[in-house]
Amino acid sequence: MKDIARLTRRGRRGQVAAVFTTVLFSAILLGALGLLFETGLRGQVSTGEYAKAPVLIGAPQSVPVKEDVDIAVPGRALLPESLVDEVTRTVPDARVVVDQVLPAVLAGRDPLPVTAHPGEALALGDRTVVAGTTPQSAGEVVLPRGLAADRSVDLGDAVDIAFGGEARRFTVVGLTSADDTGVDAADIYLTGADIGRNSARDDQVAAIGVWPGSEGTRGLRELVDRHGAVVWDEGRRGELEVVRQGQAKATLTSAAGAFGGLTVIVTLFTVMALTSLQVRERSRELAMLRVIGATSRQVRQLLVGEIRRVALVAGIIGSVGGPLLGACMVGVGRWSGTLPAGLDPVVGLLPVVIPVVVAVLAAEASVRIAARRVVGRGSPLSGLRGGDEASGPSSSRTRLAAGLAVLALGIAMAAAPWAFSGDGATGLSGLSSLVIALSIGPLSPWVVRSAARIVQGPATRGATQYLALSNVRLRAARVGGVLAPAVLGVTLSCTQLFANASAGAVASDQVDAGRRADLVVMAGPSGIDRSTAEKVAETPGIRSVDQVAAGTVVVRGPADDSAWQVLPVLGADGDGLARYADLDPRGGGPLVLAPDEIALGVQGADMLYAEIGDQVTVVLGDGRTIDRRVATIYRRGLGFGEVVLPLADVRSATASGQATAMVMTLSRDTTEQQGASRVAERLRDHPGVEIVRSPVVSDPEASVGDPASFQVVLLVILWGYIAIAVVSSLVVGNLARRAELTLLHAVGATPAQRQRVGRWEAAFVAVTACVVGIAAAVPGASGLVYALSNGDRAIPAIALGGLPLVVVLTSALVLGAGELSARSFRTRSQRP
């Protein structure tokens, strides 16, 4: 059988090339996602900021999760300043250096966020002062050499720096060798007195460096463990230097894992459709083998032997090309800002082994399933008929039943939000489109025949149209093999478009309905201090000014086995929240929180399985853990955030210790334009603030890049793989039509007529794929928007810009591949 398999591969080079190409690109995609996953787990960004300290003590930057990947703390976790005194008492002859961090804004034509440190912290790392001196007196600053060059600043020049309020003048006395290209904010150095004078959280420190003396570090480890701190090893200090990488790597890991699982499913689906098409085309050949004495088992071994080597070679090549593609995708993430600029790709065993294993297993499983349909235990004489009938009526009934069962499952999953609420219902609805699209595989012959009957009347006015539709009906299973992956691609794209558009539409509706503030002043990471808020409150035409703080928290529900959820949080006090927005609490009335209470949006409460009166655990942005009682559940969480806490909780956990925004209402005789211009005049000397008319307050410490954009990149690459599967299916289907083309030539069909037949068949596949793919995405999108809107809306929003693009790309892909096949119809003129 090995010799026969080798010979059949040589005799079917086109079909083998189609399978090889499909499996190869599947392996490349899996290798790329494997590299992204490993980079998210083991990648590190280090700036050398803490490289020299022999012992470095810092707070843990992640929340441990039992039997799962730890969740990164939303911001920078800090240590209490009292720990410094205990460290000094524990190792009295050691040298101890403390680092504090203070967000600031460097004024200029383009205000730039920076991070201020005390000058003593230079000793913790390998950064040196290459020009000038360290700051010795108040009002002195040391800048990175690269930043000074970009700003055309030299030693002795004056710069303005703001710490949540009005900018202050500092003199540049030194330049460092720091390379800050891999971080969001450059590091500057001030005197310890200036740090304390401008910081709202001077009772906390970022890191403690210890140079042990003669007594070593006895007792230091016990002290650190008792306070819940961590002694950071040299290889892991990047997590403490660039804390943003924790959230970025978590996004990378979750996106790569989710798309990796989706890719495995799509690989099985597309390879199965392609191999099924090939095996069906060879039904006469396989039946003849059985007629001359080969057993069903031997025929299956032949088919497996043919594809095994092809899949193995494709997997090996993919294990090399996949990491290269993954490295390029990491570069795209760094360029877009989704990933830190200094995060380098990490290559391990995962992106090398997974492509080979999945390629071989998917190919073998697909060919075994396809062979079972054609190579049955009955008489081989029925297979000599060839065509779509070769699989037999029992196989067709089984296929129909399986397809209907999967379709019913998908529709039931889409309807889950109407049956019950919770995160599970939303997740089922989101996955239902994929399940419905997968059901098109076994149902594709019936879908093709039904579509052909629908268009038969208006599209059969000419001979070529009639012949094309007749071919489609008679070759329904083969045409379905091309249709199925195209439908999957359209459905995945539409699901993403519908989900994003629907979520945006629901959020916009909630914001419009709940808006109360007229103007919002947004600050960067440096925040807004109380004096600035008081200054704005004195502006004519401003009726009220309230400080609010936005951020991100990690929350766990009341059950012991509840999963941690990362949710946006808003901090507001008393009447200030009511003046900012109406969140539509259940039961009505204003939303007012006591110091030990929390309010949750409907979606957030469903994720946490929490009800009013339950106790939830919250990890704030600075790593502190608090317990709060659920006081209220509100309906407009998608528009304004799923968690509301008292302002004191959120403000104290921001990087600056300040509020992140001011919300204002105007008097009746003041327009928005007048109010905005007056406030802008008041804040002329406050760099980094922005006046917006949108009432949504965002987290200033959130990633610069949009994680959703990176997921779109992954979806585009996955869709590209599906496109390759579509083209391969078209190639395989048309390579098997030599006899048909010969017959057309014999009965007098001209080359141009044969070409038009191929074009009409491709147009039929393109239109059917778009219609069926969009229809498959609608039930899941409807269920999702119903869940997100709390039952207020069931019609999904349509991305008017994206949907036509999907239709055009799908049509161009299928028609382009069909045109190549149609040209072969024109040029091939076998003798009858």
UniProtKB/TrEMBL annotation:
Record has Cell membrane as a keyword: yes
Keywords recorded for this protein, A-Z: Cell membrane, Membrane, Transmembrane, Transmembrane helix
Transmembrane stretches, start-end: 16-37, 252-274, 310-333, 345-363, 400-420, 712-736, 763-788, 794-818
Keyword Transmembrane helix found: yes
Residue ranges constituting the Cyclic nucleotide-binding domain according to the UniProt record: 605-673
Family label: Belongs to the ABC-4 integral membrane protein family. LolC/E subfamily.
Protein name, as recorded: ABC transport system permease protein
Organism for this UniProt entry: Streptosporangium lutulentum
